[in-house]
Fold this sequence. Notes:
- Chains A, B: It comes from Luedemannella flava.
- The structure is a homodimer of 566-residue chains.
- With 566 residues, the first copy, chain A, is an alpha/beta fold.
- Chain A has 2 domains: 10-187 and 195-318 and 543-562, Aldehyde Dehydrogenase, Chain A, domain 1, CATH 3.40.605; 323-514, Aldehyde Dehydrogenase, Chain A, domain 2, CATH 3.40.309.
- The first copy, chain A, has helices at residues 9-17, 19-31, 44-47, 51-62, 98-133, 135-146, 150-177, 223-231, 246-261, 280-285, 299-308, 332-344, 373-387, 391-398, 404-414, 449-452, 469-483, 495-508, 547-551; strands spanning 74-78, 93-96, 182-189, 192-205, 208-212, 236-239, 269-271, 290-296, 313-317, 323-326, 356-360, 418-421, 425-426, 436-437, 440-443, 460-466, 488-491, 512-514, 554-562.
- At the A-B interface, helix 2, helix 5, strand 3, strand 4 and helix 18 of A face helix 2, helix 5, strand 3, strand 4 and helix 18 of B.
- Strand 18 of chain A pairs parallel with strand 21 (554-562) of chain B.
Amino acid sequence: MGMTQATAPAINDLTARHRERLDGALTALATRDYWSAFPESPSPRVYGETAAADGDKAFRAHLDADFPLDQPGTNGRVAPERSPYGVELNIRYPHADPQALLRAALDALPAWRDAGPDERVGVCLEILDRLHQRVFELAYAVQFTTGQAFVMAFQAGGAHALDRALEAIAAAYRAMTDVPRNAHWTKPAGKGDPLRMTKTFQVVPRGVALVVGCNTFPTWNSWPGLFASLATGNPVIVKPHPGAVLPLAITVAVAREVLAEAGHSPDLVALTAEDRGEGLASVLATDPRVRLVDYTGSTEYGDWLEAHARQATVFTEKAGVNTVLVDSTDDFAGMCRNLAFSLTLYSGQMCTTPQTILVPAGGIATDAGHKTFEEVSRGVADAVAALTADDARAVELTGAIVNDAVLERVNSARSLGTVLLDSRVLHHPNFADAVARTPLVVLLDADAEAAYGAEWFGPIAFIVPTVDTARSIAILRDITSAKGALTSLVYSTDNKVIDEVTRAALDVGVHLSINLTGGVFVNQSAAFSDFHATGANPAANASLTDGAFVTNRFRIVQSRSHSTTP
Amino acid sequence: MGMTQATAPAINDLTARHRERLDGALTALATRDYWSAFPESPSPRVYGETAAADGDKAFRAHLDADFPLDQPGTNGRVAPERSPYGVELNIRYPHADPQALLRAALDALPAWRDAGPDERVGVCLEILDRLHQRVFELAYAVQFTTGQAFVMAFQAGGAHALDRALEAIAAAYRAMTDVPRNAHWTKPAGKGDPLRMTKTFQVVPRGVALVVGCNTFPTWNSWPGLFASLATGNPVIVKPHPGAVLPLAITVAVAREVLAEAGHSPDLVALTAEDRGEGLASVLATDPRVRLVDYTGSTEYGDWLEAHARQATVFTEKAGVNTVLVDSTDDFAGMCRNLAFSLTLYSGQMCTTPQTILVPAGGIATDAGHKTFEEVSRGVADAVAALTADDARAVELTGAIVNDAVLERVNSARSLGTVLLDSRVLHHPNFADAVARTPLVVLLDADAEAAYGAEWFGPIAFIVPTVDTARSIAILRDITSAKGALTSLVYSTDNKVIDEVTRAALDVGVHLSINLTGGVFVNQSAAFSDFHATGANPAANASLTDGAFVTNRFRIVQSRSHSTTP
């Protein structure tokens, strides 16, 4: 009895080569202390003197060219991207026949399944290593498709995304190896010979996995699902957002290259680039062969996927309304600076950016004495203004606006209340056509919940006076329960208030940051330590990376037979 | 900052008291060798001279009486059970208002959540201990509601069910404790002070859990979901099958007693007994407050739950068609005896009972020389006849027929093909009104796939001649893919055939037993070692007990704040 095990020496090398990194990730997951496998600084001291220039060159080689991707079923080319920096892209991707990709994926499944967890994880870690070798190219690809500023694109789109991918692979590995590959079962039988069985447990994948990427974080948000599915044995079809194809096209190219080198079918990972409006995600997500879907994007489409992709397990990260509750602070200036940075970073185009800031109408106690509501809201608005005063420095924080809908939303938001700080046009020193804006800060009445209780994605923040902190807590509960949230943040020097907000956060299922006044920001989460989303409120049904994110990507199939030897 | 932790010394005692048992279960899960916490022998040498009589007395005290259960919202009484043994039951259960139970459950949730994994698991293990103290009473309750024979009711309904419950609790504990309760996060910051954060991670439940029991295995099939949900912080409402209420009523009573003693709300576990046809499961399963559903029963209703209980994560074990593939054997007599026992046990009323036996029309090689197809099918039928020849001994294997639908099905199956062994009435020596039958064995043509490819739940087996083993493998694949299966079984002396069937089992996602000729039967699975169902074919979407069975019953909610000390 036995299962055919593919034996490819090169793969064993890959597993061994990356063993230390995997062990580091597993240890980090168990302790949740700081750990990182991929340096986040793009400094030449870390990556070498020519790394940035080489990456830039590699990125530019893609422009106005056919993207090289040798996969089945290509019917012409599509070039759907438009850069928020105004850079002409015209990168032409294969326009794939999804039926051909599905067939090729299923053909490749059995051998990949039988390769086993160690071999698959070794291949996945090698893919990460190759992606890391191209991290500057990826950073530029992220920057010029999403509008992120370069440093953020390098970190969130490169190093941190690699860490998040590694985290997902490690979590999948842990889940798969919770079950031993073989067991000997010996049951005592009184005075007679014991009953003896030999048992084999094999991880089997669910089927074809679909990853639906988003426009703003094509790598950070897509890689965890992609690698969790691949590591657990599922072929993966990547459907990028038409606005941010290149980072995922590079990802797929690298994955296919490594798979082929390691003796596996490259068709285990494929790209389905599409023109805007084609609706390929809906076709693929409802195909009976697709059994896993990972999605990041709008609540509307995420809800549609959950309702219609019934044959699949669907992991969604949708939108929410992130609330900040200001009760009191022992560092007023630090609070304002910290909030201003969070509001400004990538022009508020992060699912984790705070939006609705609740402040008691009677003002708050601070280290600088009592501050009136007006002083608090002025403090936040002024801190944003100071942070964005210089255009050349501001754009390195704000990046560019990802699409016109965000601009229109900023315009609409102006008329919702009293503008405390208007959004203004930023002129990028290097990209004349870049569309960049500073955050808009609007004062809303407490009864304007229809406005501040809804998501206004983009550089838009609301400051709302409330009767008192108890009322602020009630509003945080209501908004988060109804609309969901990725993050919440409280400022208070009163442990009783902290306890009450902590309890509210548990009740409505949202992660809580407390009194952030320094170099940690509510919109950032650290791989191996911070969970991203909870899966416990309407903003997401999954979390990066908890057990539920990986365990449903595979099943265990067992065989057993009598054994004469112990 | 901090979460209120309930501190109840008694609970810490419970956790400590059961620590050794929990550790044993965790070790067993990691090795999957034989392990059991609850002795399976009802012998007086194990349980004491008076245990059986005491249990019988306790069981009889329930008859023709109001079942004592002090829970909210009771509107009168229901007594829906009818014993397959013809024993007058008339046990009157509270007829609960589901709205009152849901409200009470949600009220009890926050304190149970905040009690934490160790305390919750300690309480769950204490409940198992108390159930074990009443294991004879439970065995009689299972016997006289389900129709199981006593020894089976004691084992499958008592000791083994306790082991399966313990397995689920241990798996939940492992999943919850994969994430540390607290972490210190220290990120180096060049020459400056490192960034330091203190982080807290709390397990939060999904909401109210619903357990929908079945008529045949009210404890074995319901306890894993019940205890997995409860251990992870979810209040549980138990909706028993109207035919098998008592075992779950005792379960709920014991759980409420332990919860109250430990200082928790007894409303964390409640019973909703109903009259036949009330449809309470559908009302509860689609309530927005219900976020977890565990179900065992028909495919039709399981599919309905999966389609309609959209707000919940639904774990189903439905029906399938279990196939036996006979290719060759080195122990013909052992094979026939083993199969006969599997077909006879509990009159084939197990979801794991084999139904469709595929044999090459040209016969097979055996240790006793070549056997024609007729000799093989005769061998199996004769072994069943021999096993059931003596009524008094037969009923200790067959038990009684759970309901009239099974009897009608036996009658219908007779006309499907050639009857090799007719089902006959068994007279129970102690229960004159017991409805007991021997298995029916029918020869079907290979083209009668509409018959042998569908589920015929009950004491009904089909033997089907196939062109050859390759064709048998194809049929196994087709049936299992289309209808699902809980088990599959192959007999072959040819390693190549074993490999091919193993591959088929992996492809269609069904557990495989190989060459069972001794004291292990395909319809039995051992807790801590054998998985029950795969979740990878239409017979079930979940498996007892893999990671996916427990990880989706909770989420992690995190809080973080700056820290000045490492």
